[in-house]
Amino acid sequence: MSMRRFLGPLMLATLVAGAGLLYSQSGPKKESGDTVARPKKQGGGATDATPAETEGPKIPSKMSKKGTGDKAEGPTFRSDTLTVSVDVAVLDNKGRFIPHIPAGNFRILEDGQPQKLANFSTGETPITLAMVIEFSNLYQQYWSYGWQETLTACYGFLQTLKPEDTVAVVAFDLRSEILSDFSTNRQDTYEALARLRIPGFSESNLYDALTDVADRMSDIEGRKAILYIGSGMDTFSKITFDQTRRKLQTASVPIYALGTLQALREYYDSHGYMGPIQRLDFLQADNQLRTFAKETGGQAWFPRFFGEYGGIFRQVNEALRNTYSLAYQPTNIARDGKYRKIKVDLVGPDGTPLKITDEKGKPIKYQVIAKAGYQAPREVE
């Protein structure tokens, strides 16, 4: 049974229940046949004009594409010295950040070889965040009853960010649209979210959307991340799952993923609506989000109730805000473009795993979250 036939019995009911919510939202109405990929011009509406054709000063966008000339896959570096940066979060078994861990307790291995720390820092720095939101007709039809709750949670999350943090909003279905570029003006972000009113195409190109945004952000300096909100399913991307993994690893932008289908999945399962193929689709979607998050140094959440959103967004904020910034110069100086694995451990003075205790002296179980590796540079010819 296809996903469309599988979702059919519930679509009509959820559309009726969610119609009032969808049409009560503010924001410009999308034209018939339009897609979230059409750019918005300053005066409202949409235009097909390129940035060079618009009037006014030419301000380069932080989300603008890199050069499109032919180049080898992976980054190239002209500097003789390569420095690898790794943001690390240490969380207890309740997902809370553990602070005040000295630099000497961190051990970095690259392909199993110990590396010497060249830089170590803590403390809060401004965040550059891209909110990547799935807004396709196929999924929105049965997700519509919870869309208002999701938007409300997003607005609440934005209010917890600091004034100096910059945020962009990207929505996608068949392709992506930058609804608002990176800005510290929260009104820009609110207006971008308000535009998510009527979905267009019934496709969800997750792989294309994530890799496009990660590529655009790869050259941005400082602390940065992608916050993904959606089903985790892909229907029509030009690239494959494995290609997506490689591209995300190369871009080195942490992905924090909020999977939105857990509640629906449990509802279908409890009412006997889910067959083995559909169950596999849901499991694959969750696994994809977990993989993207783990390999880029982020995290993934799968709420079963909308009441969990507040706590999850607090964890996202804490994860973005509280990390240890490590850097090292690899002992392997070969510029071969190969993937290199990174492992970060906490160790005591004797080299054994570090023991962390709470204020009562009880041991704390913890996990170390960091990106799984990076793509080595290629020699510039």
What do these coordinates show?
There is one protein chain. Helix 5 packs parallel to helix 6 (241-251) and helix 6 (241-251) packs parallel to helix 8. This protein has helices spanning 3-24, 137-143, 147-160, 186-194, 206-217, 241-251, 262-270, 276-296, 309-321; strands at residues 84-92, 106-110, 113-115, 117-121, 127-134, 166-172, 176-183, 223-230, 255-259, 299-301, 324-328, 339-346, 366-369, 373-375. 31% of the residues lie in helices and 21% in strands. The chain is an alpha/beta fold. The protein is built from 9 helices and 14 strands.
User: Any idea of the CATH class of the largest domain?
Assistant: Alpha Beta
The coarse overall form would be: globular
Q: Mean pLDDT across all residues, rounded?
A: 78
What series of H and E elements makes up the topology? Answer: HEEEEEHHEEHHEHEHHEHEEEE
Fold-level CATH name of the largest domain: Rossmann fold
Radius of gyration: 22 Å
The percent range for strand residues is 15-25%
In the predicted model, the low-confidence regions spanning at least 5 consecutive residues are: 1-60, 67-79
Tell me the span between the first and last alpha carbons: 52 Å
